[in-house]
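Quick note —
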Amino acid sequence: MTKIIYVRHGQTEWNTAGRYQGQSDVELTAAGREQAAKLAAHFPVEKVHAVYSSDLKRALETAACIAEVKGLEVQPRAELRELSFGDWEGLTYEQITERWPEALHDFFARPDLLDIPHGESFQILQKRALACIDELVAQHDGETIAVVAHGAILRSILTAALHMDLRYVWTIRQFNTAVNIVCYEKEGTTVELINSTAHLSL
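Predicted structure written out below.
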């Protein structure tokens, strides 16, 4: 069995401004750094064998807090980057609605049919995410690892673990520094925790 502790990155300026980040390399806010520090101090498992992260700054900085406490180095993986929002990156909900009203409707109502201009589909996102996770599971049999990434990609991983259709990807919440725990065994997956931010109240 491989246990993976999935973590969403801490708060960023674009999170607070309501801007779609995608693969834009946005840094954490002071509040985001505090969230990451609290998570690291109250991590849900004692022993972690490796820490992996998206190679974007907001995820790397969050992962670095965990890795430092656990005496490990962060291993960045480009495959764990967020969904590419293409022409939408840096724009707010209102700005996107004004220019692409039908596409943004699909973003929430039918993400499985979503076509972002010059961006990725959820199918492509999930395919690259699961290929990376399959590799990590095989590499860390019998171990526990942390994977720090982003809201949309974590939702796509969790829908697969829960055997849900991508159409329902937005039914899973992912707050900043949310913790999710999934166990991978030969017989299948067991989801132990989703979207926990208990560490932020400690």
